[in-house]
Amino acid sequence: MIRQTALLGLLLAANLNATPILAAEADSGCAAKRQVIEKKIEAARQNGNAHELDGLQRALGNVAANCDDDTLHSERLASVEQARQEVEEREMDLREAIGKGDQEKIAKRQAKLAEARAELQQAEAEARVDQ
How many other CB atoms sit within 10 Å of the CB of residue 37? Predict the structure, then answer.
């Protein structure tokens, strides 16, 4: 039970850390990706992290060269569908564990389901940014 609570807390914290980035962006699509990377570049400069700065600058170049809003939106919709399928699979796994009555497996399946639902919420939030 304690492990479940700790895992759920970690999942929620991870999800909450990503959500403000999405909510704070005025732009969407590729412009939003550029904006997030540029903010990270500025933070890396301020922290003197040359290795991270180099990687972020490459990422920014890749976004500028390869990012297309329509393709990005399609990829995000595909991620939502994949996350939905994962939730469905985890729900089936949980039902199976409940049927067997194994409390340890039930707890593990509940944690996996919570993780899959958090990932689905994140994917849906990213897809909504494009609209």
Answer: 19
Amino acid at 131: Q
Distance from C-alpha of 7 to C-alpha of 96, rounded to nearest angstrom: 21
Owner of token pair 């919709």: 77
Residue 62 has pLDDT above 70, yes or no: yes
pTM reported for the whole predicted model: 0.61
Other Cβ atoms less than 10 A from the Cβ of 28: the count is 18
Residue 106 vs residue 23, higher pLDDT: 106
Q: How confident is the model at residue 32 (pLDDT cuts 50, 70, 90)?
A: confident
78-to-21, 30, 118 alpha-carbon distances in Å = 21, 17, 16
Structure tokens at 98: 């409940």
What residues does each domain of the chain span? Answer: 2-129
* Length of the chain, in residues: 131
